[in-house]
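Researcher: Here's my situation. A collaborator sent me these components and asked whether they could plausibly form a single complex. I don't have experimental data yet, so a predicted model of the whole assembly would be a useful starting point for our discussion.
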Amino acid sequence: MALMDDLGKSLEQSAGGSVILTSLDAVLDFTRGHSLWSQPMGTACCAMELIAASFSKFDFDRHGVFPRADPRTVDVMIVAGTITRKMAPAVLRVWEQMAEPRWCIAMGNCAVSGGIFYHDTYSVMPGVDSFLPVDVYIAGCPPRPEALQDAVLQLRAKISNQSIVAGRTYHHKLLLPMPTKGVAVRGTGGESS
Amino acid sequence: MKAEELSSRLLGYWPELSDLCSIEKNRMLIKVRSETVHATISKLKELGFNQFEMVTAVDRGADLEIIYVLHSIPMKASVWVRTHVPRDAAEVASMADLYTGADWPEREVYDLFGIDFIDHPDMRRIMMPFDFVGAPLRKDYVDENIIPRPDYI
């Protein structure tokens, strides 16, 4: 990432470099958003929906979401299920092994806030966002695979606003209603924040 | 086998049991002191109760109640053994030398209720993290991380 930071900074400061920078961002965001290999961190019943989403009826491979049981090759961690206090260090350890850029989807009420275990518990974490930076939250107990599909599309829209320059974002349309044919429709691009 | 039939059959082999046992809701209960629970269960094992179903504990306020459930596969009957231990000195003999299946359930009771099982081969926590402090299923357990349930739920 240090190389990418230097490249982004030098492109931003050089004359005409913004054209190259925004084009590079567009290519990188497209490739990153369309090949979201996932780390399935399934700890409870939400994992059943996650498994169903991976198989042929919902077929998340068409979105580029491909489950890999190897944290070093994945881009997004899908936390599906209740995270207990004993499990949280293990989840954090898997998260720290993932290479940047990395994203996190909190799937289901337990991963979002602790769900039905929120009150009067001595063992359940109140949401996975207490120790991980979560990008997309999905409510539901458990959410349907279509909801997970929507989360992937929202995450793809979020990725399409990122730049290799730290702190620079683009203001494209955040919500994609449905995948369009071919290349996703993008704004003019280049608006630095 | 019905509890009455089991009780009469057991009393034929073991007459001293008559002032200890009772029948509630088709369950044969044996209430013993915590010093004699190992001898009681050892005797029950000789009488044919060859399966250790479970051990659990109940916080009764003044003291802790430990409940063992033994099952006899040839007789198709279960017997419940109950004992009480004080809160501040909660310890009882381990059944792991009689039944191998008592090993992990006793660790679970130790983990969640803080009851020490004497002569247990591996008395560690099993569910909570090893650096966890306290017995979370006791009624007087306090933890500042717990979010209390509001009245309207």
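Model: Some features of this prediction you could bring to your collaborator: Residues 3-13 of chain B form the longest helix (11 residues). The mean pLDDT of chain B is 87.
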